[in-house]
Amino acid sequence: MIFFLIILQILNYPFLKNDDSKLADDAYINFKNKNYETSINRFESLKEKTTDYNAKTFACFFLGHLYLKETLEIEKGICNYREAIQIQEKNGIKYEWLYSNSLKAIGTYHNRVGSLDSAEYYFHKANKSFIKQNSNVQNSMAAKLGLIYYLKKEYSFGDLLYQKYHSNIKSPSSDYFSYLTLTKNDSVIDDYFKQCHEYYKNKKFNRSNYFYFYAKYQYEKNKLIESITIVDEFLELSKENITKNINVYSTDELLMTRFYFSRAHLLKALAYEKLEKNDQALTEFNIALNEINLALPAKYQRNLILKNLIFRNLTQFYHDRGKEYLQYLDSSELVLDQYVNVGKDSTGVVHHEYMEHYYLKGLYEDDEQLKDKYYWKSYHHFKKFIGKQHGDKDQLVSFISQKDLQDEFIHFYIHQYQKNQNEDDLLKALEIIENTKSTILNKRSSNVKNLSIDEYFALDNVFDFKKKLKETPLLTPDILRSYFKENFEEKNIGFVSYYQDEHNRFFIISYSKGKFNLEVVNAQERDFNLLKAFSAKLYQSDYFIDRTYINQLDSISHLLLPQKVFNNQEDRIMISADQLTSTIPLGILNLSGGKKMIEEHSISYAFSLHHEYFISSLPKVKNDQIDILGIAPFANKDLKFSQEEVEGITENTLINEEATKENVINAVNDYDIIHFATHTVIGDDEQSSRIFLYGHDSLPEGFTFDQVEEMDFSKHNLISVSSCYSANGKYIKGEGLMSFQRAFAYSQAPSVLAGLWKVNDQASLYISKKFFKFLKDGYEKDIALQKAKLEFFEDFPALKQNPMFWGSLIISGDIDPITKKSNHWLWLLFLILIPSICYFLWQKFKHKDL
């Protein structure tokens, strides 16, 4: 409010003349004396009578403030702010301050009621307007946008926004301090707290919220007594500050102080609960509930979210002590329903709250049908919450932070299936398991890329970017049955999904001949050590195998290929791997009859079932012929066979010095398939991983992981990367192996062939040439790869037992044929039959003539 008093005191705008000036003076005096109705009447008269559009804008702006923050007539306040904006956009923005602050005010309103996308839109627009003004004000918009992302639990992008703000603002900020506590850096947090305290202690307005965040941080470190002491300091300082400055607070600001008090008392309650001081905890819970009820007339989202949190904690408090708790759980749901009606939330915040609510409801429910209902609802909201986040890091952090919740759901539905053999339970478990894989890839399917801060601020309309975000579809049991029938059963393809849980168990869910099956493998610690050692052996790939390796292969085959799952499988199998099974290709394992898996089954891989579901919906066209570009940058160096490899596949090649980054970029869009025969290196991050190409001055160049993912390969049929480790990389929970195979999938390539370990140059030459031959003949991609490897066994039988040479290359994604199946055999039959028929007819007529 003090901000507006200062502005109104100035009243030296040149457009306020004669009667306009008198009305404005009168409005100011009444505003200062808190005669809000009279002040509103004067500003309404000014708005109606003035002929100057600037004076009308001025009146609309201050009416917006009076209605929104003093009389709490929300709709009238928003309408006046919007009118102020529209007048200026129509007639020309002469006073940037009025325009920018109108945008800021509407953004602030939307933020408080929970319409965070709308708040972001107005803050983002205000930021672009403030560029022409004071840079400090512009940076404060970055801070407000940072707070929006903080509320949406998108902390990584919020961090970037806060950093931009903090690097240009000298005064310490409670909002920035709240972000800092997430970094868990004790020295930085302690120093910033001292900085805040030193800065504000002699200020007229001591913005003491930093005390609360410091107390919360101490609570999270389990320093409970210190936390309670700091909360008490916060409450004392805040109440003193309000008493001293009561006349300069707006009505809604006074109401919101109750929110801050409630939040502080809730923190005290939780600290006392941990200290097992139940009476003090219950007292603080009740104070927190009373304070938040006093704040509710402000109709802000944060009030309802906090009230819901209080009810949820009271539910747990009473449940853990064996007392009646249902009333608090029911009250929590009523508050959430009220919030939906008030906030019209288009972000993930409300879904997060419903997720937590239904999870708790299911956790405490004894009836299995109701538990199923609540867990499935909670999971549905979890997917919506994750789907609203646009940053890779934020999605993964949110995903991992809810791992316990997801595991609880998986274990429940697996247990229910084992108990009742209800297929719906198994399919719900499958949906949740597959959703734990390829979180980022699912978002990339919407063609949504990560934005830098500069790119974000340069957006003309942030809404247009948000519209691209699409939630990963919820694959219900009915959808899954229909999908598997059409895309697996009718194509004679089996499916096997692996999931490794925290108790060293493998859940193996398979689909074969129209039926879903479950196998649970209780692995021991020695089994996981074996898998790790074997995976490391493959990664080193020195092409030497000994008796130990053979024994390990047999043991792993027994562990990962249960007979119940694979004995009845179709000829073609798609694998959805997880963790350790991602780095061991199943094609190299031994079946119970002694044959290699690849001899009986063609093997392909899915990044996740959801990604397969997405690419199955894309339009597909079978070409009469396929255009392939072969790239071999090091044929005259250490990859001597790579030139023969690419020339054996296609006439269109870039070899040695032709295979520069520039030439590749210029050429790739002219072809259906791109085949790289080169080197790759996998680093610890996206910038240090690289596909190498020919460079100048003997220095190789190429594409980094993040450069590949920013490209568009959606129009290509296949990307083939015949290079070392191109299908391998760092494993990230919630996503998978961060390999170049995944990078190309991020760039929307529907199908990717790549190598898990060191690729032998000669073996790659043979298998690649055969693979593309069968591909051109119209075979499905997985079958083409299988046939190429089987012919390798025929020509090099001694190497069949050594998969180091032939097992590295795997195909992921779409496996449908690219071109129509060759009719060569019909022509051959025709050529054989025609002479026979002619000879028969000649003999017949010859005898007739005789």
Short key terms for the protein model shown above:
5-stranded mixed beta sheet; 6-stranded mixed beta sheet; alpha/beta; 39 helices
How are the SSEs ordered, and which strands pair?
Blueprint: H1 2-10, H2 19-32, H3 36-49, H4 53-70, H5 74-91, H6 96-113, H7 116-130, H8 135-151, H9 155-166, H10 174-180, H11 186-200, H12 209-220, H13 224-244, H14 251-274, H15 278-295, H16 301-320, H17 326-343, H18 349-363, H19 368-387, H20 392-401, H21 403-420, H22 423-435, H23 439-444, H24 453-458, H25 462-466, H26 477-487, E1 493-500, E2 505-512, E3 515-522, H27 525-540, H28 547-560, H29 563-566, E4 572-576, H30 597-600, E5 602-605, H31 609-616, E6 628-632, H32 642-647, E7 653-655, H33 661-667, E8 673-677, E9 680-681, E10 690-693, E11 701-704, H34 705-709, E12 718-722, E13 731-732, E14 736-737, H35 740-746, E15 751-755, H36 761-776, H37 781-795, H38 803-806, E16 809-813, H39 824-849
Parallel strand pairs: 1-4, 4-5, 6-7, 6-8, 8-12, 12-15
Antiparallel strand pairs: 1-2, 2-3, 9-10, 10-11, 13-14, 15-16
Count of helix runs: 39
Tell me the structural class: alpha/beta
What is the straight-line distance between the termini?
122 Å
Reported for the largest beta sheet, the result is:
6 strands, mixed
Characterize the overall form: globular
| Estimated helix fraction | 55-70%
Q: Average pLDDT, to the nearest integer?
A: 86
Give start-end ranges of low-pLDDT stretches: 5-11
Taking all Cα atoms into account, the compactness measure Rg is: 33 Å
Strands of the largest sheet, in order across it?
7-6-8-12-15-16
| E-strand count | 16
> Beta fraction of the residues?
5-15%
